[in-house]
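Could you join me in thinking about how sequence relates to backbone shape in a protein? To get us started, please write out a protein record for me. Would you write everything just below, so we can both look at the same thing?
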Amino acid sequence: MRRVLIIGATSAIAEATARLFADDGDRLFLVARRKARLQAAADDLAVRGAEIAGCEVLDVNELDRHRAVLEQAEHALGGIDVALVAHGTLPDQQLCQASARLTVQEIQTNAVSTVALLTRLSELMERKGAGRIAVVTSVAADRGRQSNYVYGAAKAAVDTFLEGLRQRLYKAGVGVTTIRPGFVDTPMTAGFEKGLLWSQPETVAKRIHHSILNGKDVVYVPSFWRWIMLAIRLMPRRVFKAMKL
């Protein structure tokens, strides 16, 4: 039985992944912002076979509460084997372009809060000398595009942070997995027109679960996004800047 902490536990991707841990009979501690939704998710996971060690309501932008919540989770679980960080928002790029305040707010939620959580989480897990931290970022981190560069910039900051954290924690026996999903059909993307490149949360969750259990460093979800983003990264800047991506 693994001891699993999930932050952002009511996101569609996190919930689908949590169900796979529940199927394994793992012990879970869930953290999310919406109390009623969090309790509903916990009840569902318990029915599916998980042992629920606890739930805690947290707005990730309350940075001063991070340490207390993480220590509460560690105590309730009896240690942390896996920590999945999966919270985030999808900013309206047009609104951000018209508001520096909104842009900073989105960077705060999607980057600063994650970095703060990881700093404290890494302290706990490095001290134990074992475990795995997995973080959901995005393929948007690979190259800034006009359609979502506020979101992409935040995820790129987290990606770079994770690269350094992975190198540091390797020596302590703690693994770090960066998860870069492409387009996923979730409530957060309900307003988007869907196409062939879109995936369901359950499909994404299977690859996340497999990658965590097999100690992967960086994974694209689904895997074909690795080649799509490679082509986008290699595109010459003089060509790229004239495109509408």
In short: Residues 143 and 233 are 6 Å apart (CA to CA). The chain is about 50% helix and 15% strand. The chain has a mean pLDDT of 96. The two ends are 44 Å apart (CA to CA).
